[in-house]
Amino acid sequence: MNVAVCADVGSTYTKVAVVDLDGAALVGAAATPTTVGTDVLHGLDAAVAAATAGLPAGDAPWYVCSSAGGGLRLAVVGYEQLVTAQAGRRVGLSAGANVVHVAAGRLGRAEVTALRAARPDVVLLVGGTDGGDADTLTHNATRLARVRWRVPVVLAGNVDVRDDLAGVLAAAGVPVTVADNVLPRIGVLAPASARAAIREVFLRHVIGGKRLSRGSRFARLVRAATPDAVLTGVEVLADRIGGDLAVVDVGGATTDVYSVLTPDERASGPGREVAGTLWRARTVEGDLGMRWSAPGVVRAAAEERLLAPGEQEDLARAAAVRAAEPGFLPDGDAQRAVERRIAELAATVALRRHARGGATGERGGRDLRDVRLVVGSGGVLRHAPAGHAAQVLAAVLADHAGGWPLPRAARAVVDVEYVLAAGGLLAQEHPDVAGALLRRHLITD
Q1: Are residues 383 and 336 located together in one domain of the fold?
Q2: InterPro entries, per this entry (predicted)?
C-alpha cells in the first residue's frame, strides 16, 4: 500500500489523515491535543503513530499544515482604503492569513506605531495599479526601510517601481519577497502570485519564529498555513463538482467561511468592483467560535435578531462557561442542545456576513444563489450526535431573514473525516488523488 500522511497541527488539536495514494481512500485517522506548551512535535508524532498503527507507513511522505501559535498574522499597507488596501486584505485572507491590521495612505509616525502594535508576522505592501500612482508605494517602502523594519515584507504593488523598492528594502535589511501586483488594473484582482509569496514567507520565516518546536524538523515538515490548505481543498472540490461551493468551518476561536464562485463576465462591466472580485474567497470571523469566542456568538446573534425571547440570558451563561474553560465537553442532552444552538448561530451569522460582503469588502456582497454544495466543518459538527450537524446546516440554508439571497438548490454535507485539509495538502503533487478523495467523502451523487 502506497500511503501519505496528512496532518493539521491546530491551535487545540492535531489531526492526522492517512491516505492510500493508489485508491484515493482514507485508511487511517487520529487526533491528539496539540502540545504547544512543550513541543508540537510531541503531539504530532503521537497522532501519526495512532493513525498509522498497523499500516505500512514507515517511509510515507508527510504533508503538514499548521495554525498553531496563532497561525499567520498579516498586516496590509495599501494606497486607498477602498481599492488597493481592500484588494490586499482579500488576497491575505485567501492566503490563509489572519489579517490583523489594514492601513491606507502614507505611513507616518503614528501609522508605523500602530503597525508595530498589531504584531504582524508578515506585511503585504501594495499600492497603485501597474503604470499608475507610484508615490504612495514608494513613500511606504522607503519609510519601512528608514525605521529599520525587520518583519518580512511581501511587495506586490505597481510593477513600474516594485523592483527598485525591493532593492531599497533589502539594502536596509528588511526581509522582502517580490510578487506580481495584486491589482494590476482597476477591477482586476490577481491574487495567485501574492498568495504564493505569502505562503513562501510563512514557511521560510514565520513557522520557525513561532518557537513551536525546539529543532528545525517541524519547520521542514510544514507546507502551508491550515486555512491556505483548506482553501486549496475547497478549490479542488469546486472543480470536481463543476459549480459554486461554500464551506462553513466552526472552530473554537473563529468561524471561517470559504466560497468558490463561477467567474461572471458581468463583473467586468459597468458598476464592477474597483478592488476586483475574488472568485475564490475566505473570510474569518474572530468573534464567532465555540469556546474562546462563544460570548461573541451570543452578542452577534442578538444584534442579528436571531434569538428567541428569553433565550439570550441562558445562552450567555453557557457561552461564558465555554470561554472560561476551552476544554469544556458537553455532558447530557441539554448541554449538547446548547452546543448545537451556539454552532447554529455562529454558522448563520458567519455566512450572513460573508454573503452580505461586510467581511469581504465587496459592496454588492457575494452572490451565493448558485451554490450547489454547502460543507460544514469543525469539531462541533464532525463529532456531533446523529442529526445535530444536519440541523445546524439546515438552519443556515433556511436563513430567509439574513439579508442575502439563499442558495436555490444546495445539498449540505459535513466533512466528518476532515479531508478538505488533506485534499489541499495533496493537491500540488497528487491532484488526481486529491480530487478523487474529496469526491469520495464529500460528494453524494
Answers
A1: yes
A2: MutL (IPR006230)
Whether residue 322 contacts residue 291, with contact meaning beta carbons closer than 8 Å, is answered with: yes
Q: What is the per-residue pLDDT for 279?
A: 82
Q: How many CB atoms lie within 10 A of CB 301?
A: 23
Residue 17 has pLDDT above 80, yes or no: yes
Three-state DSSP class for residue 2: coil
Structurally, the chain folds into a number of domains equal to: 3
Tens digits of residue pLDDT in 262-275: 886 445 444 445 55
By DSSP bridging, strand 153-155 and strand 176-178 are parallel
Is residue 403 one of the residues assigned to a domain? yes
Of 374, 354, 365, the C-alpha closest to 282 is 354
Q: Which domain holds residue 62?
A: 3-69+217-224
Q: Are 19 and 27 in contact (CB under 8 A)?
A: yes
In a domain, 212, yes or no: no
**Per-residue pLDDT at 437 exceeds 60:** yes
Residue 210 pLDDT class (50, 70, 90 cuts): confident
Angle between helical axes of 294-303 and 333-356 (0-180°, round to 10)? 60
Q: Backbone phi, then psi, for 104, in 5-degree steps?
A: -135, 145
Question: Picking from 1-15, 86-100, 104-118, 236-250, which range would have the lowest pLDDT averaged per residue?
Answer: 86-100
The pTM assigned to this predicted structure is 0.85
Domain edge (last residue) among 176, 207, 238: 207
